[in-house]
Amino acid sequence: MSQELREAAYHEAGHALLMRHFGSQVESVEVLWNESELRWDGNTKRSGGSTPLYGTDENGRQYVDLDGPLQESTIALAGCLSQTKFLARLEDAKAVFSKEQEWSALFEWMNDEQPEQLQPYPIRFQTQGAVLSIEAHPRSFGGQDRTVFLKQRNTIKGILIVPLGSFYDGLQEMLVDAMQFLDEPQTWSSISALSNALIDGCDKDGRGKISDGLDALLG
Fold first, then answer.
1. Short-list 160, 216, 159, 219, CA closest to 18
2. Which residues form the domain of 107?
């Protein structure tokens, strides 16, 4: 099996586990060969749509609920995080996400609307006594993932009563929690199991899709 296929499988599994973590029902997960771009791609679908932006208090008044955009943004980056963790564990099986990430630089990288001009971004991992940097290629946070994040950012920018800084503060906190979640042994075991199932299920046309039995794989 190719390294690229394994990375694509871990990428989609990361999306799926974070969707489930935030309470969504995952309908299907797939990896497929993108002939036009000559690379492996993927798609993860859920039921129920995205988390709503507005909530209603006990008096029937609407309020802005940042959890929705924050969760959507975290899910969008989860594939990239899972993919880089897979690569980090190839170098050190005990690698975990470092608590010392360059958050402002990461957000700047995520915000770029021309990813084809971007350089890879280094995600930091902690190994036994050292810090390991794994470069996340712009394609690992491109296409639909980046589009979803930019949509959430633009939605918040359009709400004058919500400072954009509050969104990034909340996103940093949620991404820290997501990294800790991905580092949990049970979570990583589920990601590995789902990834292996996707790879084993690939047909001769370069497509592996799982819908039945997802609950058991997701844990």
1. 219
2. 3-218
Total structural domains in the chain? 1
With CA atoms as reference, report the closest residue to 218 among 21, 84, 6.
21
* Beta bridge mates, 7: none
Residue in the structure block whose two tokens are 């980046």: 146
Note the pTM of the prediction, 2 decimals.
Answer: 0.92
The rounded Cα 22 to chain-centroid distance in angstroms is 12
Please name the amino acid found at residue 65.
D
* Distance (Å, whole) CA 179 – CA 61: 34
Contacts of 203 by beta carbon, 8 Å cutoff, 6+ apart = none
Alpha-carbon distances of 83 from 51, 54, 204, 212, rounded to whole Å:
24, 32, 24, 24
Residue 207, φ and ψ in degrees, nearest 5: -140, 130
Residues 46/27, Cβ–Cβ less than 8 Å: yes
pLDDT on residue 114: 87
Residues of the chain with confidence (pLDDT) below 70: 1, 49-64, 160
Query: How many CB atoms sit inside 10 A of residue 28's CB?
Result: 15
pLDDT of residue 52: 59
Find out whether 97 and 183 touch, Cβ atoms under 8 Å.
yes
Q: Which tokens belong to 111? A: 């915000």
Nearest to 144 by CA among 193, 197, 78: 78
